[in-house]
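Check out one such.
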Amino acid sequence: MTFFKLLRIQQWIKNILIFVPILSVGLFEKNLYLNLTKSFIFFSLFVSGTYILNDLTDIESDKQHPTKNQRPIASGHVSIKNAYFIMCILFLMGLSYFIIFQINEVIYLIFYLIGSIIYTKKLKYVKYMDILTISFLFLLRLYLGAGIINVSVSIYLGLLVLFFSISVVSSKKLSIFGNNDIKNSKIKTFLMNSYTYKELKNYFDYSLFCSALVYLFWIIYEKDNTETILIFYLSFIFLLTCLWNFFKLTRNNETEEIVNLIFKSKYLLSTVLLFAISFISALFFQ
């Protein structure tokens, strides 16, 4: 169990973005999905290595956090030496797979690692760049998935992921900012010295609104003539319901760990699943 906590398996859900490009163009070929699934697993192992790097860098700050102090490294359940060893193994496994089977996409892993290192060591405490760097890493996931199956990413899809990733990052920072249980935290001190609550709130509100707007434009301008247009509009309604619930949870400072929250909140999980089912159905039957 400690090993899985160290790898943050639940965070792998973010890497599902790898599958979004193939879904967006309505491809349903078994071999392509098998290829993407294998890439998903090894990319996720690689990303877990960056999580360990982050935990090693933030070990002292995590010890002061009311929940992060239970992480394997901060709590002392995994030694620093063992953590470094596991991190290197994960990086090696991920890179080896892509070098052997997806050599053209290795560049995305290199960019992801460089971005993660720069973020962890420096940009995490630089105003604006702390938000934009994480958004960049989300986009890398998207373009990695597109590269694996050799499809292009539409402007709508790129903007959707960009705006939504900004809203997720802003939401996390809002929750940290407003959580009075977090004290003596380096990240909270940085946020309070660099941003105002209203400023972060505006980033969150506008990016969330733009996410919904871009998805609607995508339906209107690219899916208007399809036979499943009504299902696409239904998926938009489910998306709005999902985003509204996300909005309310953020207002209550509950979204510092959004992935964990999805599995804890039955309502949020159900709206996410309804959106996913309606979206995939509309593409499959179009």
